[in-house]
Specification:
Helices cover 69% and strands 2% of the residues. The termini are far apart. With 297 residues, it is mostly helical. The protein has a two-stranded antiparallel sheet with strand order 1-2. This is CDP-diacylglycerol--serine O-phosphatidyltransferase. Residues 253-297 are annotated as: Disordered. InterPro entries: CDP-alcohol_PTase-I, CDP-diaglyc--ser_O-PTrfase, CDP-OH_P_trans, CDP-OH_PTrfase_TM_dom, CDP_ALCOHOL_P_TRANSF_CS.
């Protein structure tokens, strides 16, 4: 008798991640309905809700040890709808329906989302990749692409008509986002970024401000988040390049790699200025390469 309730409770917990994925799918599909009804603000909010649920379902599955092949397939198919089809239809209905080329660019975006998800699934099955590659996405992730896309609608809802709502600007932005999705640009995964303990209070304060802004200035918040995310791309590229050029650090934790980079910077304070002045170390090596030889050399 005591084992039956526990078994039922376990089944309920294991179905929670898939339930969140189904809710995200419903949110994405419902956003299309509201876009067709002329309620763009609700359509945008539902796509944002789908992105939040997508970010949570995988973590909940890992916490509950409820990961499964079926759950992964449901999540991938839901992402294609939530972040490919739904945002494309919302943007087309709200901003590009008056131009025949508008359908072409949103179609390109939706196809690029599907291609990006297919590549992501293929990389999951590749066990020969170095450990550090798990900390980076290859190209922009689909949820981030959807948020970038609806930020165009957020600008229209916040500021009204202007150059930011012109057919050429919106079309070029959609194409640019589509290219980022299928690009090979490394982008840091958010859950791979660790926060030092002494900054935990600051992070909580920032989250409180974000929560308040979500109610008071939702459109501005979306645009600020998109700009902040795009600003991290150069840092992700730099971090990926550093790790890729230091095979000895591939198996290290991110915290250890950051410590190694700080140690190198402290040991070589003038590593950038000295090559420009023509200062070389004996043996023909610049100071920027000291101590950075690959294993086995």
């Amino acid at each position: 008798m005591t084992g039956t309730p526990r078994a039922r409770r376990t089944v309920g917990l294991h179905i929670l991640p898939s339930s969140m994925t189904v809710l995200a799918l419903c949110a994405g599909l419902t956003s299309i309905k509201y876009a067709l009804d002329g309620q763009a603000h609700l359509a945008m909010a539902l796509i944002a809700a789908a992105a939040i649920l997508d970010g949570l379902d995988g973590r909940v599955a890992r916490i509950l040890d409820a990961e499964s092949r079926m759950g992964a397939e449901i999540d991938s198919l839901a992402d294609a709808v939530n972040f490919g089809v739904a945002p494309a239809v919302v943007i087309y209905v709200s901003m590009l329906s008056t131009q025949p080329a508008g359908w072409i660019v949103v179609l390109l975006y939706a196809v690029c989302v599907v291609l990006r998800l297919a590549r992501f699934n293929a990389l999951l099955d590749d066990t020969g990749l170095p450990a550090y590659t798990k900390e980076f996405f290859v190209g922009m992730p689909a949820p981030a692409g959807a948020i970038c896309l609806i930020s165009l609608l957020a600008a229209k809802l916040q500021f009204g008509e202007g150059w930011w709502t012109s057919q050429w600007f919106v079309g070029a932005s959609v194409v640019g986002i589509a290219m980022l999705l299928v690009s090979r640009i490394p982008m840091r995964k958010m859950h791979a970024v660790s926060v030092p303990p002494h900054l935990a209070a600051v992070l909580l304060a920032v989250l409180a401000l974000v929560a308040a802004a979500a109610f008071l200035f939702p459109y501005i918040l979306v645009m600020v988040l998109v700009v902040a995310y795009l600003a991290t791309i150069p840092f992700s590229i730099r971090s990926h390049h550093w790790v890729a050029s230091h095979p000895e650090s591939w198996e290290d934790a991110p915290k250890q790699r950051r410590a190694a980079r700080r140690a190198i910077r402290r040991a070589q304070p003038n590593r950038r200025s000295m090559p420009r002045l023509g200062v070389r170390r004996p043996g023909g090596r610049s100071t920027a390469r000291l101590g950075l030889r690959k294993p086995g050399r």
